[in-house]
Design goal:
This protein has 245 residues and is mainly beta. It has a single domain (19-244), classed as Jelly Rolls, CATH 2.60.120. It is 0% helix and 50% strand. It has no helices and 19 strands. Strands 1, 13, 14, 15, 16, 17, 18 and 19 form an eight-stranded antiparallel beta sheet that branches. Strand 16 (197-209) and strand 17 form a beta hairpin. The chain is globular and about 45 Å long. It starts with 18 loop residues before the first strand and ends with a strand. 35% of the residues are buried.
């Protein structure tokens, strides 16, 4: 499956341009227990234009049926971040962790030199999550695991921060990530550092930014610049903002 988007290439060739990834143009996978929307190339879906955005390699919007999930499987040299949206997910790994990840919680796992883990929905209803892969600054970090609950408000709540400020999680890349749930008509500043690029991802709801109407599942990559604002639609919004280096 390939994208029909007319947006510029997201892989760095046009680092100063706006890159739009409409929800309907994402790659789509469906099994009897899993529905997944892939913002970038993943598994059997490959498009050389959509290999990621800077160090952001994967955004998968997954819905997993009750009693099902991903069995034990390996990873290495990748920062894997899970943002729980609905339900619960049971995590086990070769580092000895056995945890339950619930809505509002965030998991940051550094695969490093190698880790094996499973993700099973042992709850009574489907769960929904965004799984995010970010390339580390270099290979060879030791594996690590962190998990925290976050209270999400109308303004930006930091989920990832290089210094772990305000309770945010740190990964092996100087990336920052925020989440917000603005109500109808509320406005959010999309300002990012001058030496970074940004990615905005709509989890729910909609709004306007960069002169465009955005809906659930839409993503936008953008360069730094003054006056960039997101305004939530009548239904409000739930969204992520990445600052990428």
């Amino acid at each position: 499956m390939t994208s029909t988007s007319s947006s510029p290439r997201p892989d760095g060739a046009t680092a100063g341009s706006l890159v739009v990834r409409p929800a309907a143009e994402r790659f789509h996978s469906r099994l009897d227990w899993l529905e997944s929307w892939h913002s970038f190339s993943f598994a059997g879906h490959f498009d050389p234009v959509w290999m990621g955005f800077g160090p952001l390699r994967v955004i998968n919007d997954d819905t997993i049926a009750a009693g099902r999930g991903f069995g034990m499987h390996p990873h290495r040299d990748m920062e894997i971040v899970t943002v729980m949206v609905e339900g619960q997910l049971n995590h086990r790994d070769s580092m000895g962790h056995s945890e339950v990840l619930r809505a509002g919680e965030v998991q940051a796992m550094s695969a490093g030199t190698g880790v094996v883990h499973s993700e099973m929905n042992l709850g009574e209803r489907p769960c929904r999550l965004l799984q995010i892969w970010i390339e580390p600054s270099r290979g060879g970090f030791p594996p690590a695991y962190r998990q925290e609950p976050f209270q999400i408000h109308a303004g930006w709540t930091p989920l990832l921060d290089p210094q772990g400020r305000e309770g945010a999680l740190a990964i092996n890349r100087p990336v920052r990530l925020w989440r917000a749930r603005p109500a109808a008509g509320e406005r959010l500043d999309l300002g990012i550092a001058a030496d970074a690029r940004g990615w905005l991802q709509l989890i729910e709801g909609g709004g306007t930014a960069f002169g465009r109407s955005l809906e659930r599942g839409d993503g936008v990559g953008f360069p730094p610049g003054p006056g960039q604002i997101f305004e939530a639609s009548e239904a409000g919004a739930d969204l992520l903002l990445f600052e990428l280096r």
